[in-house]
From TrEMBL, chain A:
Residues 24-296 form the ArsA/GET3 Anion-transporting ATPase-like domain. Pfam families: ArsA_ATPase. One of its GO terms (molecular function) is ATP binding. InterPro entries: ArsA/GET3_ATPase-like, ATPase_ArsA/GET3, P-loop_NTPase. It comes from freshwater metagenome. This is Unannotated protein.
Automatic annotation (TrEMBL), chain B:
CDD domains: ArsA. Residues 7-158 form the ArsA/GET3 Anion-transporting ATPase-like domain. Belongs to the arsA ATPase family. This is Unannotated protein. InterPro entries: ArsA/GET3_ATPase-like, ATPase_ArsA/GET3, P-loop_NTPase. It comes from freshwater metagenome. GO terms for molecular function: ATP binding; ATP hydrolysis activity. Pfam families: ArsA_ATPase (PF02374).
Length: 382, 312
């Protein structure tokens, strides 16, 4: 049986079985709410069912899914999801593990690791600027996600790690975040600001003292002493961070690291994919393709009258057939929209392979749900 | 207090729930009532293209009769504030540099406070002769988490600052956002589990802050035309699981899609009921139907019609 997204119309061109055959890292990027976490878990389950030892690093999973996977209250620690063989003849199953990322605690761990002394670490952890920074500042979650990825890979416990990512307006934000963060921590301008006396290039000289005084008065916060402390410690770690950023970059460029983009059937989402592809072409990144999730299915080429007639014959209930045909017509409008959008995407020159995943009848919030999703992610195996 | 009779509306919600579309539709609605409206957006710039206008950036720009747009840049907002405090020339010398911009990036809540101060300025009843006055400022705010941080920022900042003009202003801003006669929040939601959970949590968090929740918009709802038994009868025409494409007769092929749509609609009904039950009495809730295509300028009139009753 084929599980292509639409009974007629566009069909999938991306085969995950061959694409992810020997992947060690799979990164799923994409906009908010498109299904990154669900898809990461679904692919993870599919790979585990193929005998591989899999770990899925999730970020903010939906509550019911987190609970069903046994993640409630467990942040930062891998949890194994018990898997029964899917078929009675029982293929050998691998392992499925999931971790829920907690950006703040990963940061705290990094600070402890890189600080010169426990006292120095403690000072940073209490620092006002650090608290702001480690909480919500753009880029920190992305940075900690790749940090965690590193840690999981280094343990050698898994054959493949799937990396779910925080929602980004632009999928590239994710790739650039560690670099930007490192650049920020390493900023020469800040070093100069914070060490006005050291002269160095003499860019600021005495002006800096005046400047900092004014700043303090304008802001009403002695932010500078907090900043100085923050950068004093983090600046010292900057070498460590720099090494990490380079290691991460190398990891992202490895042939066994594969990127997938998840999108919704919306023009903005597909435009994002096109932009992602365009930028990746200049980089050493292995972008395997686009998962278009939650596609509406319908019979595209039959109008309401034909559907009503067919249902009337099958059901012998004219009233019901009429309403059901009306409902189908509504779904068809949406399905045609989705289909046209993807057809246009596939017609564009140099497009990537696409995997079409239909809207399922139920939300995906447990292992049976993920198994249903897996049938569409790995259709050949069905 | 009628929603559009306030001076400042903040439209927020999870990513992709329709904040931009709904902020724009409310703007069209208010303009239709003769109000001069400014729609400000904070995270990026999408509104200008929706209104078929070239990008406006951090400049108040008239794009249609009675409708202006501004895409607020938080760093620029901070400069606006400082400029208003020390005057243009002094400001240029002291704050117009990279060092200051870097400091801004690391300062807890500072950008947010300055952004909220922009809203305050824009929504003043009298902005003097140099600046246009608006009857209503609608903010297409960032997604919930960031928007809440923004609303909290005046109090947060006021708590850590020991003095200075920003602290003084922050106290004013706290009063502005907590005044239901002037400020209201519009929360956008989708009829799905996680978005509904988040909406209910945000509604409570707003209460905690003393900020008035003026309207909840449940966006992209669908309905069914069938009873549950009827839908299952149709689903039974298809041999396999409803999720799978079937071959065969037309009746067999439409059965899956019809049942999937019906179940989805029913699940959404349940989420809508859960949302209605979870909101405090008195909080207005309205639904916007899902449309086949993306929202364009032409659709805003219809969206405005659909919102008119709830906004009255
Ligand atoms: N193919 C599908 N069919 C039906 N429901 C789906 C499908 N894919 C995802 N969902 C549902 O959509 C919701 C959002 O999915 P998910 O949490 O994976 O998105 P996300 O991209 O990770 O979101 P965020 O950007 O908020 O992290 C979930 O409730 C999930 O069950
Ligand atoms: N009622 C609706 N029916 C169909 N499509 C809609 C509806 N409302 C919004 N949309 C579409 O959904 C997409 C997201 O809407 P919009 O941009 O308004 O959301 P947003 O919350 O501002 O998103 P973001 O978080 O990315 O800023 C857009 O393509 C928009 O045209
Ligand atoms: Mg997610
Ligand atoms: Mg928006």
């Amino acid at each position: 049986m084929s599980a292509g997204a639409a009974p007629d119309g566009v069909t999938s061109t991306l085969d995950l079985d061959s694409t992810l055959g020997d992947a060690r890292v799979v990164v799923l990027a994409g906009g908010g709410g498109v299904g990154k976490t669900t898809t990461a878990a679904g692919i993870g389950l599919g790979l585990a069912r193929r005998g591989r030892r899999v770990c899925v690093l999730t970020i903010d999973p939906a509550r019911r899914l987190a609970d069903a996977l046994g993640l409630q209250g467990v942040a930062d620690e891998p949890v194994q999801v018990p898997l029964e063989p899917s078929a009675p003849d029982g293929d050998t199953v691998g392992e499925l593990w999931v971790v829920m990322l907690d950006a703040k605690s990963t940061w705290d761990g990094l600070i402890r690791q890189y600080a010169d002394s426990p006292e120095a670490a403690e000072k940073v952890l209490q620092n006002r600027v650090y608290k702001e920074f480690s909480g919500a500042v753009a880029g920190t979650q992305e940075y900690t996600a790749v940090e965690k990825l590193h840690e999981l890979l280094a343990s050698g416990r898994w054959d493949v790690v799937l990396l779910d990512t925080p929602p980004t307006r632009n999928a590239l934000d994710f790739l650039d975040a560690p670099q930007r963060l490192h650049a920020f921590l390493d900023s020469r301008a800040l070093q100069l600001l914070l060490k006005p006396a050291s002269g160095g290039l003499g860019l600021l000289g005495r002006g800096a003292g005046v400047f900092t005084g004014l700043l303090k008065r304008a802001l009403g916060v002695d932010l500078l002493s907090d900043l100085m402390e923050f950068f004093g410690v983090l600046g010292g770690m900057s070498q460590g961070f720099g090494q990490r950023a380079r290691a991460v970059q190398a990891l992202m460029a490895e042939p066994r690291t594969v990127f997938l983009l998840v999108a919704a059937p919306h023009p903005e989402s597909l435009e994002e994919a096109a932009a992602f592809r365009a930028t990746l072409s200049g980089r050493d990144i292995h972008y395997a393709g686009l998962v278009v999730n939650r596609l509406t299915r319908a019979v595209l080429h039959e109008d309401e009258a034909a559907v009503r007639g067919a249902l009337e014959d099958a059901l012998d209930d004219a009233d019901l057939a009429g309403r059901a045909a009306g409902l189908h017509e509504r779904v068809r409008g949406q399905a045609r929209h989705d289909d046209a959008l993807i057809a246009a995407h596939l017609a564009a020159p140099g497009h990537e392979p696409v995997l079409l995943v239909p809207q399922l009848a139920e939300d995906v919030h447990d292992v049976p749900g993920l198994d249903r999703l897996t049938e569409h992610l790995f259709p050949a195996a069905g | 207090m009628a929603l559009l009779d306030r001076r400042l509306l903040l439209v927020t919600g999870k990513g992709g729930t329709g904040k931009t579309s709904i902020a724009a539709a409310l703007g069209v609605l208010a303009a239709r009532q003769g109000k001069r409206v400014l729609i400000a957006e904070v995270a990026g710039e999408r509104l200008s293209s929706l209104f078929r206008h070239r990008p406006v950036g951090h400049h108040e720009t008239v794009v249609e009769e009675r409708i202006s747009l501004q895409a607020i840049d938080p760093i620029e907002a901070a400069h606006d504030f400082l400029r208003s405090q020390v005057g243009g020339p002094v400001h240029r010398v002291i704050f117009q540099n990279r060092l200051f911009n870097l400091t801004m990036t690391a300062a807890p809540g500072l950008r947010e406070v300055c952004t909220v101060d922009r809203f305050r300025d824009l929504s003043q009843e009298d902005r003097g002769r140099k600046h246009p006055t608006y009857d209503l400022v609608i903010v297409d705010a960032p997604a919930t988490g960031h928007a809440m941080a923004m609303l909290r920022s005046p109090a947060t900042y006021s708590g850590i600052a020991r003095g200075g003009p920003i602290k003084k202003r922050a106290d004013e801003l706290s009063a502005l956002v907590a005044d239901p006669a002037r400020t209201g929040v519009v929360l956008c939601a989708l009829p799905e589990e996680t978005p509904v959970n988040e909406t209910l949590e945000t509604a409570e968090a707003l209460r905690g802050l003393g900020v008035d929740l003026g309207l909840v918009v449940l966006n992209r709802t669908r309905g069914t035309l069938l009873g549950d038994d009827e839908a299952e009868r149709i689903g039974a025409l298809a041999p396999g699981a409803v999720d799978e494409a079937s071959d065969g007769d037309l009746a067999v092929r439409v059965a899956g899609p019809v049942l999937v749509e019906h179940r989805r609609a029913r699940r959404e009904d349940a989420q809508r009921e859960r949302l209605a039950a979870g909101l405090r009495p008195g909080v207005a809730l309205t639904a916007l139907e899902r449309r086949d295509d993306e929202v364009t300028r032409e659709d805003l009139g219809e969206l405005a019609d659909a919102l008119a009753e709830a906004a009255a």
